[in-house]
Write a structure and sequence with these properties.
three-stranded antiparallel beta sheet; elongated; about 25% strand; alpha+beta; 3 helices; single chain
């Protein structure tokens, strides 16, 4: 890990230094937060150091920031996967499908639309919603 030496503890000065070094970003991410914390610890008054409660509070904020960042990334991946799943099922519109009902009966029909319901993609055949897991056969409509 590289150490960061700055003359100031202000965030704006930190961003300016980072930009001057070609490492700058206008977004305060977890790396910037850690660098600021390290600079703050390096420049604190040894006779009056940061209280442990304050340090713990800052670490808790950092942990919360990291968890929120990770959750945001995972949520974006989930949404992309759901949209890709939804988009790929739109190719079924106009196709003849065969599916198994919950009672085990076989049915068939032409897909008229695709919908997203209860977190699942369902195709609509007439007035029936069919979960894509129940589809057993797909053919071109005649």
């Amino acid at each position: 890990m590289t150490s960061v030496q700055t003359d100031s503890l202000y965030y704006n000065d930190f961003v300016k230094n980072q930009k001057n070094q070609g490492q700058g970003s206008t977004v305060l991410d977890k790396d910037a937060f850690l660098k600021l914390l390290i600079v703050q610890l390096q420049n604190q008054d040894p006779l009056n150091p940061m209280e442990d409660k304050e340090f713990i509070a800052q670490m808790a904020q950092f942990s919360a920031l990291e968890q929120m960042t990770n959750m945001n990334v995972n949520m974006q991946k989930f949404m992309e996967a759901q949209m890709n799943n939804f988009t790929s099922h739109s190719d079924l519109i106009g196709k003849q499908i065969e599916w198994t009902t919950s009672s085990g009966n076989k049915r068939e029909g032409i897909v008229t639309s695709v919908m997203f319901k209860d977190g699942d993609v369902q195709v609509v055949v007439g007035d029936t919603n069919v979960k894509t897991d129940n589809i057993t056969k797909i053919t071109n409509a005649e």
